[in-house]
Amino acid sequence: MALDLLPKGADVLEFGAGTGIDAKTFAARGHRTFVYEPSEAMRDYLARHCRDEIAQETIVPISSPLACKVQGVTANFAVLNHFADHAPLFEELSRVVHQDGFVLASMLNPYYLGDARYDWWRKNLVNLLRRGHYAIPSESSIHRFVPRVVARAATPYFRLERVTPRGLRLATDLYMFLLFRRL
């Protein structure tokens, strides 16, 4: 999805780059890829996994998302589910993303019925319906959000353009993708 949104040769930021698997794909397709990864262990793995691309500067590790200016930001594998409040993040990303650029985030789907077998999901159903979000008590501090809550946090810098999947697939897909367009 991100590759379809990026103009030829456009720079991209992978926010929460993890091991660099996606970064390698972007770089191989001609996109200089800035990678921001806060976990030291993941940064070490990324440095090994992407050493050739880093040496060629097609992948550029950065210590802050503010260290680049890009057409698009990707946040894959539920990175944004680690944030309790997205408003400061979207404000920061508004200084990184070009006008009409995008943020594409995969997030854990709060409607996923496969989680209904867990006590924490059933206990939080009322919170989801009333407030549009809930936190799962764990050391990794995972939060689940309905798209409108994240869209509200992105305002006034971004507008929610697309949610995938839609309809009944919201009940069957573990992840949902939110596409935000920079205003």
UniProtKB/TrEMBL annotation:
Protein name: Methyltransferase domain-containing protein
Domain of life: Bacteria
InterPro entries documented for this protein: SAM-dependent_MTases_sf
One Pfam family hit: Methyltransf_23
